[in-house]
Every structure is written in C-alpha cells, then in structure tokens.
Design goal:
The structure is a homodimer of 246-residue chains. Chain A contains seven helices and eleven strands.
Chain lengths: 246, 246
DNA sequence: TGGTCGCTTTGATCCATGTCAATACGATAA
DNA sequence: TTATCGTATTGACATGGATCAAAGCGACCA
C-alpha cells in the first residue's frame, strides 16, 4: 500500500536550472529577478547523481562547494575516534548541505544519500562572488545558514530536555511538516532511514525508538508499517510535546 | 585566592575600534587591510554595556544587529512554552552573538550577560553591505557562521552520545581551550555560570554536575572551589573522553 | 522455493542519572 | 556578630532507557 498521496505534484516539472526549479522558495533563489536567476543558473550548472548509500562528501574532504538537494534524501553524521557516531541531520529536496566546511576549508561530517538522489553543486567561491553582486542572493544565503543554526538549537533542546517519546513525536511532526511544505502528504510518508539512524539522531537506542513507535500505534496516534508512517492524530503527538510532566 | 594567572595580558590595551582590537583574529576583522579596517570601524561604532543578568536580547525581539563580545561573558538559552529551558551556548570575548535572528528577522533565543560585559553592535544590513565590498570580510563572516554550525555539531554529539562525566570533561576542556586562545591560563579559571546552567547546557541535572565535579576532584583531575577551577591533569580528562567504554 | 540477511519488534534485566531531601557554604545585609 | 538567600554538596531511592537476547518479518537472491 504505497502512499500515493506522497507523490509530489510539483516535482514532475523539474528542469535543470534554478530559474525553472520548483524548490525555488526553499532554496537560494527566492526573490531573484530573471537576470539574477540566469546568473545563478550558470553558476549552478553542475549536477551530481548519487546512488543509495553513496557519500556526497566525507569528514576531512576539502571544502569546495555546497550542495542543494534536488531529489532524494540524505543524512549527515559525525564519527568519533572511538567509533561512536551521531546522525546530525536528515536533508530533503531544497535543503542545503556542506556549509560545515566553510570555516575550516574541510568538511567536518559525512553526507550520505539514503536513497538514489541528485544534488546541485554550488562552487562556494563562485557563490560568494555572485552574492557580492546580488544583494538578495547574499541575504538568502545568510538566511539559510541562520535557519540551520536555529534548527540546531531545536535539536539541542530535544536532546537536552526531552524524553524518548517526546523526541520521537517531535521528529515525526517535523518530518510531516517538511514533507508538507514540499507538496507531499502531511499524514502519510515513507521514512528513508532505519530505526538505528533515527535513534542516533534523537540520542536514543534503536530499541527505544521501536518501542516508542509501538506505543504511538497502541495509542492510536500513528499507523506504522515498517518505514511507512501514517499520522492519525497529529494533535495527540503535539500534546505529548507540550504539556509534558517533567 | 583569585586566579591571577587568569588576568589577560592582551586585553589591557583594548581600544575602541576593530583596527585596534586585540580580539582581531577571533572576530571578523582578520586579514583586512588598513583601509578596510577603518571602514569596518565606522560600521561598528556603537558599543553597549550590560550589567550582570541583563539581557542583550530576548527571543522574539526584532533582529537588527549581531554582537561581538568585547569583554565579559554571556549565555544564550531557549525557553519552551511548558517552562523547560536549555542553555544553548556560553560566549566569551571575540565571539559573535545574534546570528540566530537572520533567518526569521527575529531572535530565537535569549542572550544574557553572566557578568558585567560589553559588546560591539554590528548593524546587520550594514555588515551585509560592507561585505559586498570587502571579500575578506564576507568570507570571515561566513567562516564565523560555519564554525558555529560545527560547534553545534559537537554539542549534539555530546548530548546524543556521551555520559555525564564525559560531558563535563568535554566542557571543561573546551572552556580551558577557549580561555587559552584569549591569553588566559589554560589550567585555572573562573566559571561564570552556576551548576544549574552548566547542567542545562550539558543536558544534565545540577546534582549530576556537582557529583561529577566531586568525582573529578577525587580522581585528582581538577581542584574545585566553588566556581574556581584548576585543571591538574588535563590528559586524565582527555582520556575520559576518548577510550570510553560504550 | 527456500535460504540468507538486514531490519524490526518484544521481553527481561540492569544501571546511570533523575528525583527528593537534608545539609553546608559563602556572600551580603542587618 | 547573626540572619538570610542563593548556590553547592551529598545521600537515599526511583525510574527511564540501555543492554542483552530471542524471535519475527520482508526483500532479495540462488
């Protein structure tokens, strides 16, 4: 029972250039004039396809470009010497990857495609150059980075103060919201990552994630079938988040 | 027994302008030519003093400027509707505050002085304008934001995978390293925040923080006297971090 | 068609950290 | 000096999530 409702409407018309891209408002090109867009187009020429499980970049790779996800789904993770690792984010269409590398000239995390995916390669020095010419582009880029900082704040909040079920509820609502703003169904979607990856992202063990899923199903908040999730009672999940005991 | 060694050498010579500022390399002005610096000077004219416990800005405040800490010590925190809050960072001289506001035109967290402090006010639209003229400034700003992203990654790692004593060890080593790069003693410093604030930052309860401090003292890693910390065995702390059991 | 493999679910038990409570300490004010 | 208040330490106990272990389920392949 594949979730038909999750087929994106707008993505059908995707073309090569930013000027034609349906991800417009999520990405860097919002508010640009026609001629500005065409300048951006020439910058973003390169495209890169990745197979599932392929790395877009690895920690330590020299930093040269940032990437806009065109289609597909990614995770970023950090690996400690002692083997522990943590998923630091999941990225979907329209989201930008690789900004961690600017500060040190090298990437500090790994980015891996969780399904066959395609990204726009945005050479960073060229982006800086163009955004010295185009005020709106400059500001858009700053906004993207800032939003990433705010996202991180939210994740810290989650990791620092929430209990297991709250974390998972927050995660599901966040996924739902992001699918929505891409024209997919808010209520039904397919998770691309394993329980272990969810757990790593949420600071939990995979068993705990699994138990929380089961619990939510018992409560009637969601229907789970492997990686297919149907949200039956979003408010139920939201309540879990807000007036939590401690 | 105040820690004399923690008196900064370089800060004595602080003047008003970026061009004279000893925090140079930590801040936005690195690598700028004389004339570029003087342009930056005119932008950063405004200064703001804050008393201990005073807010630099609050969540929801309209975003207009970012701030460079000149002297003193800050915390940033996020407050949830249900009353839970989390400290998301501690900022000291040379560090930049307020970039969370760019994306939404409003600040998303609170910034509070933990001791009497002074900041340079950097009106953001002017900074954007000047960094369209000065490539190096533009790049410096991008680096600062990127480093903030990487810092957040580290904190997620800490919150997601480390146990209490590891977290505190990481925290102490980080503080020590930051004091060092400002010309203070690496081995002896004064914490400006309470156990509760440390706990909030590390995702622990204040009692757990206190116990970990006591434990480190028993082990001979540090000497604790209230907020005065002396690091006796930094390698001991580092070992705690690396070859940890799980 | 059966076998293997990766992923997920579920149960039983353990332990790190949270919780609650008492006490101590240090600064400041009366 | 003594009182007060915020902060820190320490102890006793409770518990949420980790850990260990065993099935279950689906997808893919031979």
């Amino acid at each position: 029972m594949p979730n038909k409702s999750a087929v994106p409407i707008s993505l059908v018309t995707i073309k090569a250039a930013c000027s034609q891209c349906s991800l417009h408002e999520l990405c860097l090109s919002e508010g640009l004039s026609k001629e500005e867009l065409s300048k951006l187009d020439s910058l973003v020429g390169a495209r890169r396809k990745l197979k599932r499980q392929q790395n877009l970049y690895r920690a330590g790779d020299p930093f040269e470009a940032i990437y806009a996800v065109r289609t597909g789904f990614f995770k970023t993770d950090v690996l400690l010497e002692d083997g522990r690792d943590q998923v630091t984010g999941f990225q979907m269409a329209g989201e930008i990857l690789g900004m961690d590398g600017i500060g040190t000239e090298a990437h500090t995390c790994n980015a891996v495609a969780l399904e066959d995916s395609e990204v726009c390669v945005i050479p960073f020095s060229q982006l800086e150059q163009l955004s010295r010419e185009i005020k709106t582009l400059q500001h858009n880029f700053h906004k993207v980075m800032s939003r990433e900082l705010v996202r991180d704040q939210g994740l810290m909040m989650l990791l620092g103060t929430m209990r297991a079920e709250e974390r998972l509820a927050a995660f599901l609502l966040n996924m739902s919201q992001r699918f929505t703003s891409r024209g997919y169904s808010a209520a039904e979607f397919h998770l691309r990552m394993t329980r272990e990856e969810i757990g790593s992202y949420l600071g939990l063990k995979l068993e705990t994630v699994s138990r929380a899923f089961s619990r939510f199903q018992e409560e009637g908040f969601i229907a789970v079938q492997q990686k297919h999730i149907r949200i039956l009672d979003g408010d139920g999940l939201r309540k879990l988040l807000n007036h939590q005991p401690r």
